[in-house]
Amino acid sequence: MSTADVFAILRGLPWTVALTLGAFLAGAVLGMPLVAARQSRILPLRIVAMVLIQIVRGIPPILWLFIIFFGLGMSVFPISPFNAALAGLGLIAAANMAEIYRGALASIHFGQWEASSALNLGRWSTLTDVVAPQAFRVALPSAASYLIGLMKETAVASTIGVSELAFQGNQLSQLTFRGLEVFALVGMFYILLSLPVAWLSRVADSYLQAKVAR
Amino acid sequence: MLPSYEELSAWLPDLLSGLSISLQVTVLSLLIGIPFGLLLALGVLAKSRLTKILALFLVEVGRGAPALVLLQFIYFGLPTSGLTLGSFTAAVIALAWNTGAYTSEIIRASLQSIPHGQREAAVAIGLNRLDALRYVLLPQGLRVALPALLAFSILIFQGTSLCFTIALPELVSRAYEIGSNTFRYFPALLAAGVLYASISIPAALLVSHVEKRAGSYAQR
Amino acid sequence: MDGAVLHLGSGKPTMTEDDALAAKRMPSAKGRARKPLIKLDKLSKHYGNHTVLDGIDLEVMPGEVLAIIGPSGSGKSTLLRCINYLEPPDGGHVTIGDISLNAAAPAGRSELSTLRRSVGMVFQSFNLFPHMTVLRNVSLAQERVLGRSRRNADDRSMQLLKRVGLADKAQQYPGRCSGGQQQRIAIARALALDPEVMLFDEPTSALDPELGLEVLAVMRELAETGMTMIVVTHEMSFAENVSDTVMIMADGKIIEKGPSADVMRNPQQERTKRFLRAVHDR
């Protein structure tokens, strides 16, 4: 495997990173109103959110990308492969982050809500000042783990023509007929890419643990 | 935007045939992958250095590489070194590897979550390592692992959609084919989506039910 | 108390394993034997910089009931767990009967297995196996370790369950039994391997006083049949009335040791006096 080949594959790296971060950001942000709806006291809102989350998570990512790129892209409005992938992965990320937030909120001891209520903090203030900061700490490991998973999901974008890592690998393999080494290399890149995220997550987690009095 | 009744009835046989293949791949991958995951979990905990390193390698690669890349590696990559496999076989091998890697971590975490006293009691009454695993630790560990294993099974089912890229005639590829023939992409893909959801969503509800029941068991 | 134990011996017409063992123990009754059953020589254990056991020397005679009491962190539990090598000591010798293990030479699997067969252990948190019936809990080790057939193992288990007053719970799962019942089952499970000595690690600390009484009654019966027992406990009345010898530990060392009546009522060491006073004031 020549260095030229390695660089050919790495051409896809910026796309992979952009997709991963973009989708994660979209998911982290959109997940918040989604979980708020999910936990809301208004029953119809709760049901709509629940159904939405289930549907989004119940359909495989590649199919979502196809629906958006081929389905909508062909008939309703043209959309670039990258944007379609971003939209699809962002949608899925939002649903998954909403579930992560839900789990984190549920894990906060009920006593926190009770104490806030006794101190006459409103529901909103309790959420933002008391519960959310604690939930954030709880959610961090799951969110980091999801980020790594999301990065691997971005490989499906190759199927709709986004020139990220997996796409470049596929191209190179067809060009050189050396599929074994090429795909092994691509796999290795993904594994290496996950290492800094895993490390950062451990660092952040221990930093946050240290701040909490027990 | 939505398929008409005539379209649906025309498409359904193809789509269901694709779904059947997806399900077959899912079941086989799980049947092979989960025992494989158990072996890997024990391998990672083994004393022999060689076993441990081999197991760790298989786990880290099986987990760390995207399922898509594993599929491509087995289907496109292996032939260049002489071994050619059909898409169904390649799909099962790649997904079983993926399953094994993830479930080994699930099982390992479950084994570690068993109260330490159980291991001590097993040691105190003289059970050897193998017996302790077989009679005391694994039965409890697998009960704890069950919700996670079920949740993962749903992911594998969805993962079979990736086999589109290795020319397996599963559900997504059927829907895409119908779309490219009729230019009715959205309805066809939507129909496929509904079929996926019709299995994933009830399965997910089953998982939360099992989780709640497992939670009450773990209370003891 | 639901029929907790009050008979000695098994009252069976023919000579069985049970009778033979009882016969072996009876004559060498409390404190009147030649050679110590358990001998600890300079037993020590550290966790990092912290010394948990500081060169403990101890002898326990066959049939003797030794109660170990003392403040938390004194090393009592660790001492117990070193005897059956649940935690390997860092220094010293452990001798049980004919088996002697040296901390310096790591013990082989078969040696450990033989050692643990002669030692039964009862834990503070019972540690029954929740996924099997009570009967299976008691039978499992007999089948796997002693190689008894399922039939024989189950028969013996029923004998033992009858002895601790819980024969009717045989087909139940541990989760449906009270704490006191679980602990009595744990005792039966430990007895199933016909051990030479029984170790008890704060057996009643996790129980309500009422449930604790059931367990103490079983332990008392066991003591009266001549079983060698080492009991780490906070139950002062057990220490005073049932055990032959009482040993006070603090900071990893033996502070005082002697016949129970003497130590409990007439302690010599200041540390002992302090401890007993604190216990009394509660």
From TrEMBL, chain A:
Q: Which GO terms describe its molecular function?
A: transmembrane transporter activity
Database matches in SUPFAM superfamilies: MetI-like (SSF161098)
Gene Ontology biological process terms from the UniProt entry: amino acid transport
ABC transmembrane type-1 domain: residues covered: 13-201
CDD domains registered for this protein in UniProt:
TM_PBP2
Concerning Gene3D superfamilies, the annotation shows: MetI-like
Domain of life, per UniProt, equals: Bacteria
Indicate yes or no for the key word Transmembrane helix: yes
Q: How does it sit in the membrane?
A: Multi-pass membrane protein
- The keyword Manganese is assigned to this record: no
Q: What is its main location?
A: membrane
Pfam families listed in its UniProt record: BPD_transp_1
Q: Where in the cell is it found?
A: Cell inner membrane; Cell membrane
This protein's UniProt keywords: Amino-acid transport, Cell membrane, Membrane, Transmembrane, Transmembrane helix, Transport
What GO cellular component entries does it have? ATP-binding cassette (ABC) transporter complex
List where the protein spans the membrane: 12-35, 47-70, 182-201
The family line of this record is: Belongs to the binding-protein-dependent transport system permease family. HisMQ subfamily.
Q: What is this protein called?
A: ABC transporter permease subunit
TrEMBL record, chain B:
Q: Which residues cross the membrane?
A: 20-46, 53-76, 82-102, 144-168, 188-210
Give membrane topology per the record: Multi-pass membrane protein
| Keyword presence, Membrane | yes
Record keywords, A-Z: Amino-acid transport, Cell membrane, Membrane, Transmembrane, Transmembrane helix, Transport
Q: Which Pfam families match?
A: BPD_transp_1 (PF00528)
An example GO biological process term is:
amino acid transport
In terms of InterPro entries, this protein maps to:
AA_ABC_transptr_permease_3TM, ArtM/GltK/GlnP/TcyL/YhdX-like, MetI-like, MetI-like_sf
Coiled coil (residue ranges): none
Protein's name according to its UniProt entry = ABC transporter permease subunit
Q: Which organism is it from?
A: Ensifer canadensis
Its organism's taxonomic lineage begins at: Bacteria, Pseudomonadati, Pseudomonadota, Alphaproteobacteria, Hyphomicrobiales
